[in-house]
Structures are given as C-alpha cells and as structure tokens.
Amino acid sequence: xxxxxxxxxxxxxxxxxxxxxxxxxxxxxxxxxxxxxxxxxxxxxxxxxxxxxxxxxxxxxxxxxxxxxxxxxxxxxxxxxxxxxxxxxxxxxxxxxxxxxxxxxxxxxxxxxxxxxxxxxxxxxxxxxxxxxxxxxxxxxxxxxxxxxxxxxxxxxxxxxxxxxxxxxxxxxxxxxxxxxxxxxxxxxxxxxxxxxxxxxxxxxxxxxxxxxxxxxxxxxxxxxxxxxxxxxxxxxxxxxxxxxxxxxxxxxxxxxxxxxxxxxxxxxxxxxxxxxxxxxxxxxxxxxxxxxxxxxxxxxxxxxxxxxxxxxxxxxxxxxxxxxxxxxxxxxxxxxxxxxxxxxxxxxxxxxxxxxxx
Length: 359
Ligand SMILES: *[C@@H]1O[C@H](CO)[C@@H](O)[C@H](O)[C@H]1NC(C)=O
Ligand SMILES: *[C@@H]1O[C@H](CO)[C@@H](O)[C@H](O)[C@H]1NC(C)=O
Ligand SMILES: *[C@@H]1O[C@H](CO)[C@@H](O)[C@H](O)[C@H]1NC(C)=O
Known about the structure:
Layout: E1 11-15, E2 22-29, E3 34-36, E4 49-54, E5 57-62, E6 67-69, E7 77-78, H1 81-85, E8 91-93, E9 102-112, E10 117-137, E11 142-144, E12 157-162, E13 165-171, E14 174-177, E15 185-186, H2 189-193, E16 199-201, E17 210-218, E18 227-245, E19 250-252, E20 265-270, E21 273-279, E22 282-285, E23 293-294, H3 297-301, E24 307-309, E25 318-325, E26 332-343
Parallel strand pairs: 2-10, 10-18, 18-26
Antiparallel strand pairs: 1-2, 3-8, 4-5, 4-9, 5-6, 7-8, 9-10, 11-16, 12-13, 12-17, 13-14, 15-16, 17-18, 19-24, 20-21, 20-25, 21-22, 23-24, 25-26
Bound molecules: 2-acetamido-2-deoxy-beta-D-glucopyranose (3 copies).
C-alpha cells in the first residue's frame, strides 16, 4: 500500500438518496489529513462557539476559552482559531481512519440569555468518504480488502462497483462478473461466509486504476428494492513497470483520453519533485533532467501524456507519477504511476570470443 505524502481531495455536491438533503462529500485516504469544509455567513461578528458532530456524537468543540476533542478524535481534530475568526469553520481531521467514514455536521451555538440555554444552528453537513489504497503491478493479482465481520447478516448479497457499473456480484452460489472483468474477479464464497468480502482481481490492467466501492445489500428489505449499505471504498493504484538500458530512450506510458480536458496541463513527478511539466507550448524540465525529458505537445493534445526520457541513467531508476492539473479546481489528478528499472548496458567484449585462446 502506498500512501502519498500529498493528499488529493475533491469535493462534490451530491444528493443523499435517503435524506434527499444536499451535502458535501469529501474523500480522504486512510492516514491522510482531511479538510471538512464549513463557512460562516457574515451574521457572526464575534468568534462563535462552534461544534462538529458525527452521528450526534461530539467530534470537536471550540468555545471562547476552551476546546474539546471528542472520544476517538483526541489530538486529531481542530478548527484553528485564527481561521474561525475569519469565518472559516472547516474541520481539520488528521490521521484519517476507516472508522471516520460517516456524516459530519457543524453547528454554531448561541447563548440565549433569557433561558440560559444554547441555541444550536446547523451550518453544514459533510460526508467523509474514507478509502483505502492498494497498489498493484500490471499483470499481478490484487486483493481489494473488505471486511463485514462486524455486521451480522445471514445471506449477504454483495457487490463491488465502479460508480454505477458492477464489477462483481455474488448472491450465494451465483455470481456475476462485469464487462471487462470476465474471468478476472471473485469474492470466494467460503471467504464471504467468514465475513471476508475482499475482491480478488487477477491480471491487473492499467485501466483497472480507479475507485472500487463495495456494497452489501440487505435482503430482508428487498421488497421493493434492496437497501444497499456501502461498506468499503478502495482505490487501486496500478503501477506499470518499464525497463530501460543505460543510454537508451525510455517511454513512460500515460493516457488521459478517458478524461475530457480542454487545455492539458501535465506534470511528471518523483514524489513532490517535478521532472517535467507542460502547459500548452510552455514546458519545464526538472533538475537533472534538462534536455532529456519531454511530453511532445502534439501527443499531449491527442491525450497521450507519455514521458519520453532520453539518455537513461542508472540514477533514473525510481517511481514516476503523472498528473493532470485541472484548470477550474487547481487540483491535480493522478493519471499514472510508472516504475522505471534501469539496467547496465551489456558489457562489450574486449576479446573476440571466437578467437583461439592466446598463449
Ligand atoms: C480554512 O481553514 C483551513 C485550515 O483550518 C485551511 O486549510 C483552508 O485553506 C481555509 N479555507 C479558506 C477558504 O481560507
Ligand atoms: C480474504 O480473502 C482474500 C481472497 O479472497 C485473501 O487473499 C485474504 O487473505 C483473505 N483475508 C483474510 C483476513 O482472511
Ligand atoms: C505516445 O507518445 C510517445 C512519445 O511521445 C510515443 O512513443 C507513443 O507511441 C505514443 N503512444 C500512442 C499510443 O500514440
């Protein structure tokens, strides 16, 4: 499992099918820091008394003179005071855990003098979607972890999905494999009975790189339509391996044809360090890569973000990641991870091996 030092979040406003209340969804991976957005309207002139709750339990509270971290959130939560004064009531949640996956609501508390009670006013609702990251090599077998042992269900009807598309479905002995996953996916029945709903994904392909969500359907309530409970989200990072010889030219593959982007802005990085960047005609070559790297503009316009690395050196051996930078949101989206292995040139024989051994 690879945890990136930078965290990529994205926000989307969606409608919860149950409550039909609009809310914000924030996605964060296990171990990262999540920011649950919240903004106070101009009505609040002094530092307000703020509270964040999750399923009615207090997560964090800030009053004029004190702060409180809720049970299970000790040392992991904050609404910085300076930000709060500016009307920014966003919750900073560090070291995100799987169990943090839930609904969060922020409130502002106002003291009502007459009754000496506090009036709470809801500000914002945020759904935090916590996901796990799994990294797999092209061609290998990946296990997307999932566990429902904590739930007591007789006949589970389980499904792994990518958005609305089914990857794998199992109901008892019957199973279904989605298009593009035929013969490659399974949640073994015996494992499922033990409460292990992990998805086994064989012969991993570059195109498998995405979010997989696991849903459990509660059959008892299936009268009209089954009630689905989302249990787990796993992000599969597919890593491609490329090998090259010292002195040769390597092409690190990258393809964003499936994304619709007007003005492509691509970046290739090693960790946080930029190797190459291109925005239209402008490009930048990182230190140690001057004159050796390019993502040709005409290729980029076709959706081919492959990096051409000339005159490969032994020190180039590492993990490279390509990102597309979104113009509107200023966020970078990971497109591809490529592991480059560099081998020495086969040694050139000084002696002609066919020559008879000398005296
Ligand atoms: C709100 O505060 C958080 C940290 O508490 C910060 O990361 C974020 O950028 C702030 N948002 C705005 C709009 O200032
Ligand atoms: C769960 O099942 C997968 C394969 O289906 C297996 O690889 C994994 O080891 C199992 N995990 C546990 C905790 O048994
Ligand atoms: C993508 O670009 C690289 C170099 O820029 C090239 O070698 C490769 O053939 C291109 N791939 C496709 C599918 O066009």
